[in-house]
Amino acid sequence: MIALFDRLTRPFLHALDPEDAHRLAIRMLQFAPLPKAARDDKRLAMRVFGLNFPNPIGIAAGFDKNAEVPDALLRVGFGFVEVGTITPLPQAGNPRPRLFRLDADEGVINRLGFNSEGSDAVLKRLAARANAGGIVGINVGANKDAPDRIADYVGLIERFAAVASYVTVNISSPNTPGLRNMQQAAVLDDLLVRVIDARERVAPNAGPTPVLLKIAPDLALGDLDDVVGIARSRRVDGMIVGNTTVARPASLRETAKAREAGGLSGRPLLPLANRMLAETYVRVEDAFPLIGAGGIDSGTSALAKIRAGASLIQLYSGLVFRGLALVAEIKTALLAALDRDNQSNLADYVGADAASVTAEPWPH
């Protein structure tokens, strides 16, 4: 049924402006009578950050920015959903056009700029589904014109800890001026001290809320050393590697669109994203688990992401070109790998190739 839905809707969606197509996809998920996905094989289950995931496949922040369809996404087979990025106050983001499909490369460039309905609207939706079950995390960011960006993150942690399965601190979007500067050591340390303090402060009422840090794939390795060291010392619960890249691989065929400003995602991001994931994994030394994002569009690339160091994975741009059927395809491929290798669960694969990936030539 989901495959049929994909075949019927994808040509129509691709004929639309990318942002209009995305808006329509959200509407379809709200109203289309899609069947509930089959129960997951127990071998796909993962316990990460103290949470029990029925399968490791999540949808990345950016798809459901305002928490409009988390339950529909869980229903069609995702193991978890990350909504957002949410900013404290509503903001429109950057001017349109700001979303571009690179069809020949199966990539996407966006410069959305944290367009958000704001925390009030999202909090209301998440509070309304508080007893619905399923793992729904929230990705938080600062308003573009905030006088104290760290205070924005602290306030969002305080507001959402009680209704979010976990909170991701997003300091890696390339589309808010100066945001990536928060990955610098002194600023990051201050940010994480205040964020973790806020989490602990509300924990008696909100319960335990894992805090994750989402980083860019464009960090220099010396800066990655600093980021991982600070994340470990401040005892974050995990990291997401990574966001979109401002780099433009030489292999891109959509050369005119590739000149658009913004972050590149999709298939062209996979080599860099996997390299940064493996580099992060070897530095973390099992202090906390990682979520791998960037370039997953098949069962093969999903397994490669896990073997590079990811305990969980996230999709987004791959869905633009593969549709929702990609979720079931990845599950089938992961189970086939377990059968082939006579393994009992996916945890046996996590990081298996990390050392060898870091020894490869740097992706260009």
Describe the overall structure.
There is one protein chain. This protein has helices at residues 2-15, 18-31, 70-75, 119-128, 149-160, 185-206, 221-233, 255-258, 270-284, 299-307, 317-322, 325-341, 354-358; strands at residues 46-48, 51-53, 57-59, 80-86, 99-102, 107-110, 136-140, 167-170, 211-215, 238-241, 263-266, 290-293, 312-315. It has 364 residues and is α/β, with parallel strands linked by helices. The strands form 3 sheets. It has an 8-stranded parallel β-barrel, surrounded by 5 helices. A 3-stranded antiparallel sheet has the order 5-6-11, with no helix packed on it. Strand 1 (46-48) and strand 2 (51-53) form a beta hairpin. Helix 1 (2-15) runs antiparallel to helix 2 (18-31), helix 6 runs parallel beside helix 7 and helix 10 packs across helix 12 (325-341). The longest helix has 22 residues, at 185-206. The mean pLDDT is 94.
Give a short synopsis of this structure:
With 364 residues, the chain is α/β, with parallel strands linked by helices. The chain has helices at residues 2-15, 18-31, 70-75, 119-128, 149-160, 185-206, 221-233, 255-258, 270-284, 299-307, 317-322, 325-341, 354-358, and strands spanning 46-48, 51-53, 57-59, 80-86, 99-102, 107-110, 136-140, 167-170, 211-215, 238-241, 263-266, 290-293, 312-315.
Question: Would you spell out the secondary-structure blueprint of this structure?
Answer:
Elements: H1 2-15, H2 18-31, E1 46-48, E2 51-53, E3 57-59, H3 70-75, E4 80-86, E5 99-102, E6 107-110, H4 119-128, E7 136-140, H5 149-160, E8 167-170, H6 185-206, E9 211-215, H7 221-233, E10 238-241, H8 255-258, E11 263-266, H9 270-284, E12 290-293, H10 299-307, E13 312-315, H11 317-322, H12 325-341, H13 354-358
Parallel strand pairs: 3-4, 3-13, 4-7, 7-8, 8-9, 9-10, 10-12, 12-13
Antiparallel strand pairs: 1-2, 5-6, 6-11
Helix pairs in contact: 1-2, 5-6, 6-7, 7-9, 10-12
